[in-house]
Amino acid sequence: MGKAEYSYDLLVIGTGPAGNGAAMAAVKSGLNVGMVERHDMLGGNCAHKGTVPSKSLRHAVKQLIRYNSQKLFRTISEPRWLSYPDILEAASQVIPKQVDMYTRVYSRNRVTVHTGEASFVDSNRVQIRLDDGAIEYITAKDIIIATGSRPYRPDDVDFNHPRIYDSDTILKMSHTPRTMIIYGAGVIGSEYASIFSSLDVKVDLINGRDRLLSFLDDEISDALSYHLRNNGVTVRHCEEYEYVVADDNGVQMHFKSGKHIRADVLLWCNGRTGNTDDLNLEALGLEADHRGQLKVDERYQTDLENVYAVGDVIGWPSLASASSDQGRACARGICGQTVRFVTDAPTGIYTLPEISSIGKTERELTDAKIPYEVGRAFFKNTARAQISGEDVGMLKLLFRVDTLEILGIHCFGAEAAEIIHIGQAIMSQEGEANSIKFFVKNTFNYPTMAEAYRIAALEGLNRANRF
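The chain above was modelled as a monomer; its predicted structure follows.
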């Protein structure tokens, strides 16, 4: 029986946000597009193991917190405790909806999806190994690698042990631990520390640096540290593990500092690795770095003129939103259109409360010797936050004293990742249109969380004596 052969203008390997963005942009430009997905469900890690399930899990926990903390619900019953599997079951309901959405989109746009393991034969030819062992071959003029990433696993930690998890396998944990060590206090580790501490799990969050999420504005990082500790999380800075011992009774982590701690389970959240090791990059003469990531230019082109890479597989910023934009931009370039190299994606961190920011921090502006002023709005002073009961947090605007140009926006609190986009729209304007005065010259709905922009702008202008 002969091997199946297919041919496309563009082949996209991976159906996550980056691959989806690339495929849809290419189809709309008239290209014949094929895709490859190694799993039997579409959407990539974003839909099944990363962004969507973890944020759905967070939302379910947030709903439980609201029920247990608001007096209104005491007329119904007393506060309730739910197990982690209960919360996980509620969160998992969104995944089939994502798969169905991707399936309908590809079907409607006549995109053929091949299910199997892709590996390069040469720069225009890819071999697909199907689950039953059969082989398909696909040729394409251009190929985009959008294979995403997976949790980094050091060789000296036994991830086969039932008490040791990473950010993928934690979504299958079938019990609620009493205590947990989270190794790695980056975005993922901080998010899970918020989630599990809200389920009354005693969490030790291990940070290899001297402050949490040091890329954030210092004031926002300090606020996160406070709220994590206030929720019972023990944050241990400047620690590096030496070895891990797991047995039937728990996990013990020994540090190079000489200390050691014990917990029911370990959640490893220390970095991610690009999914490139099975692509046979050697056939192309390409080489991924030590974290499995590929180097690209500003057109997302690798060292080969017809092979591109987008999304987590190229590293920073490793955000679903940025990955989708990278995919679209890459496909536009292939189609002869202008390419936007994504460098201005806002940060969205779904801790409890959540964090979002765009632009410069106070420390960056100080180091660059750029004169600036600060305007703040504390959510506790806004009517909408008082009504909703989510009055923790603030909006912070950084702007030039002379021109009033907005230089940075930092938000901590309820709906921060939504609120940030109002300021982002103004920051993206050219010249005088990018001004903090926009927020005092225009009327905001009342009561809204967006009103915080007006409050912060008025406070900042008052500080700068620029009324």
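The chain has a mean pLDDT of 93.
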